[in-house]
Specification:
seven-stranded mixed sheet; four-stranded antiparallel sheet; 15 strands
Length: 407
Amino acid sequence: AIELNNMPLPSPWRADFPAIAALQRQGQTYLDNAATTQKPQALIDALNHYYVNGAANVHRAQHLPGANATQAFESSRSKIAHWLNADESAQIVFTHGATSALNLLAYGLEHECVAGDEIVISALEHHANLLPWQQLAHRCDLKLIILPLDTNGLIDLVAAAVLIGPRTRLLAVSQLSNVLGAWQPLPALLSMAKSHGALTVVDGAQGVVHGRHDVQALGCDFYVFSSHKLYGPEGLGVLYGRNEALARLHHWQFGGEMVLTADYHTARFRPAPLGFEAGTPPIASVIGLGATLDYLASLDHMAVVAHEAALHQLLLDGLNRREGIRVLGAPQLALVSFVVEGVHNADLAHLLTEQGIAVRAGHHCAMPLLKSLGLPGAIRVSLALYNDSDDLERFFSALDQALELLR
């Protein structure tokens, strides 16, 4: 029998996500939320309303459908600004994902760097917060500095104090590791970078879904996240920037909407946010994210935090009770990555999949981190507010059966 400390943990929000019931009817238990989340009915209703009642482009048409779409679109921008406690909605730029936002920054800030300058990231970064800076370093003959980790999977602040220096032009770090599940010591890191006049970028792709994050209190210059990890639609990212930081960005994509004036040989471009939203934006997704934030704002935030924390502890306890399982780092919330002695992660993932357990296996788009740990990959279980203890019971039952076959 599966023992979970005799603590049934039902999710009071499970019924708000119709896909969870559909997946369960298919015999599936969804535990890959760090990759993408399921969507609340409030989002589905908002998308349906937009398409059924008349889609239109934003900011351009003078007809009623265009006015309605623009109003809903800009209302969502305001909701996102409020969610992050930004000063104003003009500090919110829509992109096609966190990856797109980070590439925007890597190209838009290229002029700020000269040969020999340094960009600082950490050893745990997702490829999305590594490759844009790596390629910028190649283009401009910069040094890419990698901050090492301590034994708990946290960025080593002693090493950071040495490596962040007068040639540092930019620090880009993740808020919450998508492999190690550890909140990073951002206040100390951002303070170090700012003391040398460097710009600061926070990759909030994993962190944004767990708690309300105040970008003003955080003190970063830029903060990015993807809608689809925050129970919102795919194909949409958010870039927050302080006004002074946004003003330093050069435009990197060109086309309709972002132009003030143009002739055949010259053009003048809008400032942020519209100046960085060339072409038709993902209108329905933006409106849908606004509806998602309305839904999330209606929940008891402390109850969600407590539920996720309790589930996370049950997951950790269950893994730690099983012989031969090694949890990576010291995960604090939402996700746990682990390896099993003598078992390849792909083999284990295959047997879990056959039993209807959806987890992630492999390098999790953090290949350098896994290589540094001497691992070809790992299994990652990641939780959301709609998961419950029954999900974990099914996971552990499948895990035990898989390990019996593989050992």
